[in-house]
Design goal:
It contains ten helices and four strands, in the order H-H-E-H-E-H-H-E-H-E-H-H-H-H. By secondary structure, it is of the alpha+beta class.
């Protein structure tokens, strides 16, 4: 096993950071790494906003309910961005582009491009000995985040990433077994694999050093999907010109 794979397999979310800021060289290396992620048809359909304004970080912390959104070494906001492809379009060209700008295909493309870039950023940060935590809870109030950063038409906030020097070393949470996610030549039944994973994750939750509890993965997922969350996201996405067709 090489160093890169060992680094990937040792990933864990860091939620406590030392009060030390990243320097400009580190930030640029992380962003350059993000820019070199794979991208569909060379679109690079995303933007990354570095959040250094303390007032904005405070507002994000309130929206997400996460203190580490404010207290970290650097915070990044990843956005789906189809605005960039329209900047040089005159009015009739823009009208001809609308069907593509508003369809589900390019909504998926922009979200996938952003996720690929973010994972490159995460790997780059971790290779420097830094820790990261993805922040999906910026979508707790997606409209407020959109307004806070003055995002134009065809740009929406997707998720954040807190980066910094780890101030704790949490256990690495187990992942699904390979036979629950990897199938050859077609989708396959994997209930037995889920049973084995439930047993494993149950032992993990019972024994971990913080927030131990009695739970399984499938029970956790059933609870999550029976409780509606962030139902305002659909309308906001469409209002910004995404996923309308």
């Amino acid at each position: 096993m090489n160093e890169m794979i060992e680094n990937l397999l040792s990933h864990r979310s860091i939620r406590k950071f030392k009060s030390k800021q990243l320097n400009q060289q580190q930030i640029e290396a992380i962003i350059h790494s993000a820019l070199h992620a794979s991208t569909s048809s060379y679109m690079m359909a995303y933007s990354i906003i570095g959040v250094t304004d303390e007032n904005k970080k405070e507002q994000l912390a309130e929206i997400t309910g996460q203190t580490y959104v404010k207290h970290n070494g650097h915070f990044l906001l990843f956005c789906a961005d189809l605005n960039r492809v329209t900047v040089k379009a005159v009015s009739d060209e823009y009208e001809n582009m609308l069907d593509n700008l508003e369809n589900s295909e390019h909504f998926l493309v922009s979200a996938i491009d952003a996720a690929l870039a973010a994972q490159n950023a995460a790997i780059a940060a971790e290779s420097m000995g830094l820790g990261i935590c993805y922040i999906g809870s910026i979508r707790n109030n997606i409209a407020a985040v959109d307004e806070l950063f003055h995002l134009p038409k065809h740009v929406i906030p997707l998720f954040g990433m807190a980066i910094g020097y780890p101030a704790h070393h949490p256990e690495s949470k187990p992942r699904l077994p390979i036979d629950a996610v990897y199938f050859e030549n077609g989708y396959q039944d994997h209930e037995n694999a889920l049973d084995r994973f439930d047993e494993r994750i149950g032992k993990y939750y019972a024994k971990r050093s913080e927030n131990n509890r009695k739970d399984t993965w499938t029970d956790q997922m059933k609870r999550r999907f029976q409780k509606t969350i962030r139902m305002d996201v659909t309308d906001h996405v469409k209002n910004k010109g995404f996923n309308k067709k």
